Structures are given as C-alpha cells and as structure tokens.
Amino acid sequence: MAIHKRPISPHLQIYRPQLTSVTSLMHRASGVFLSLGLPALVWWLWSVAGGRDDYLVAREIIGSFIGRLFLFLWTAAFFYHLLNGIRHLAWDAGWGFEIATAYKTGWAAIAGAIALTLATWIIAYWLRAG
What we know:
The protein has about 130 residues and is mostly helical. It contains four helices and no strands. It is elongated.
C-alpha cells in the first residue's frame, strides 16, 4: 500500500482563532454556564421560601468569595449571551455579515458585556452600602 500525503482537515493547530470563531465559542459556553447556574437560582429561591434558617445558609454561601465569584461570572455570561444573541438576531435578519461589521459588533458585544457587568455590580454595591 502506497502512502499518499494528503492535506489534512482544518483544525485548531492549523488555523489561529479569529474573533468570529471566539465569539461563537464564547456564546455557546456562556449559554451552558447560564444553564448550569439555573439550579443555583432555584436553590436560592427555594431557600427564600423555606424560611429564615434556610435563607441565612444560602446567604452565607452566596456571600462567600466563591459564591460572589460565581455570581459575577454568571452576570458576565448573562450580559454577553444577551448582547451576542442580539448580534445573532441581526445576522438572522441579514445584517452584519461583512467582516468589518462582524468584528465591530463582536468587540461591541464583549465591551458591552464587561461594561454592563461592572455597572451592575457597582450599582448593587452602592445600593447595599447606601
């Protein structure tokens, strides 16, 4: 049997990541992370309905460093998924396929998610402190 050198299929070792592929991957990952966070939300709601003792336990866990980090990342995932979802809706309508526009809207989704996440946490901290 002769061995022929054939071109191999494109994969991550051949192509460097582009913004469009990274934003697509981040959109999927943020959706999965949001889905995984739903049981935590249900648990928190259950603790509110369960009475004072259950709520205090939930509040202690959520108020821990790990709990707040989870909430911060969940907030970031929410805003990114929302903004990138709007971007996908624009694509469904046939707008934004040009490379320059795709890059602008991709960076806008990332920057908007960062800004909205920080604004949400700053406002929440301000309301709690005030």
